[in-house]
Amino acid sequence: MIYGNIDGLKKSTLEQLEDLRGYIMENGSYLDLQTAEILLDITESTNREIIIVTDKRNEILEIGVGDFRSTSFPEMDYDKIQGVKSFHTHPNGNPILSEQDISAMINIGFDLLGAVAVQNGKILIGAAVLDVQDGQVSVKDLGIFDLKGLNELDISDYTERVGKYRRKSLSIVEDDKERAILIGVNLKSQKDYLDIESSMNELKELSITAGVEPLDMVIQNKERIDSNFYIGKGKLQELRELIQIKNANLVICNDELNAIQLRIIETVLGVKVIDRTALILDIFANHAKSGEGKLQVELAQLKYRLPRLMGMGKVLSRTGGGIGTRGPGEKKLETDRRSIYKQVNILEKRLKDMESARKTQKSRRVKNEMPVVSLVGYTNAGKSSLFNVLSSSEVLAEDKLFATLDSKTRKIKQDDKEFLLSDTVGFIEKLPHDLVKSFKSTLDEVRDADLILHVIDSSNPNFYQQIRIVEDVMKSIECENKESIYVFNKVDLVDDDQLENFDLIRGDKIKVSALTGEGIDVLRETIIKKIFGSLIEMTIKVPYSDSKYVSYLHDMGVVVDESYEEDGVILKIKVSEKNKHVIDRGKDHAQ
User: Fold this and answer.
1) Do 304 and 414 sit in the same domain of this protein?
2) Which ranges constitute the DSSP H helices of 73-155?
3) Tens digits of residue pLDDT in 421-441
């Protein structure tokens, strides 16, 4: 098999290339006349780059075909080849090595690389070797030669120098970090909440959170997303060159891809490709700590991967190999769909059982009349930091997207009043639908809350758009009409002029800083007022025969003072308007 773009090539041309495999150059030449003429003749007839890879004996090991502008080097275990060299043709007649050629030379480690072209009927070769300069391997351009000049080159000093450097570096573990090019489509006919630049910057932050090194971003303006090539076939060809120049091993798309798109893009680019949904799921998989959280992520991963089994080529073939394969949902998904459906059913049943247990806990809270306050907001708005301040806890709080996922609940006591404070998962633009469904039981806590604190990162220039995204998610879980407070966090990072813009948001608003403590006392007082209402002071008399009711009122924490008379106990109580019903029984005995 000839590697690369062989579509449309004649059978005779393919056979001619196949005959080159195993051929050893004449008289120990790096490149002999016969081979050069064959490569150039095929290039002239096909208008495509032709590439050969040779070893220490100058034997042709592999052949590849590209297009007019570029070609990808054949997939081989280059580390096991001694004296690996490569030559390829340039149809444009220019023998100068391109930036892509030089990048590939360093990445693969060729001892010698040459670009072969014809100018004025003469064969010319632009040649370069690897060298060591300033303590690192670099490319040294030797210049342009004819065949005789090329074959007279002595590159032994260079190869020896590079060999010594590599032997000294053997103790250094090779960096296997994923390095990504981020790509997105700016739809002219559609306006998302976040503009394309903000959305791509968010994708960059997500990549960093997932442990990926983002190398570059590519944005394509289109009327609609290409149903096969996502950003378009031509743009993918350009992206292939950028991948080689940047030495990237991963491409992350800013939109959710279907199976066909995944398969086609990976085939064209030759590297692993994932979409925004897979990236978010990977982050959730890494950050989920509780048993329920892990099950929720695993279920979402399986539902996401199931329809894409035929498309996720490189993702599925690298089990345990980085984004798209790791976490609690990591499975050998090459197995048949029936076993995956079975696993989905098992997970859904286990989560349903956990949901039943959660409802039991909720019924106990209702019985004890314990109000619930839930924190919601865009990811990285500072919910966990605010939760820590209000509850005096030490929940993980980092300047990362989705630093915490598992729901946390703490009992808060304020002014002799008690309520439960719950921290929930953060929201984000294009939050995967299956993930929202999987986290339904966790988000039910928001639906059951007596008060919602919508935490907003006031220092983010897109906070208006983030508010709308959160409110859309709230609407999807039927919580849009819940009593809520807009909590503008991180005001210590905002200028006074910007603070004036917050007044444009309708509804109850409080400006706070979880870092400095600014506004926290006001927030606490507002929470108490919202969930308990204004306080009413009353005096009631309870007969001694009804002593259990006296104990009940003490347990409720509403008794301010008490005194005893001959026929009963005089209680002075202070109760909120919302809990006024707790004294209804006492009214029957009041004087």
Assistant:
1) no
2) 99-108, 147-151
3) 888 777 777 777 666 666 665
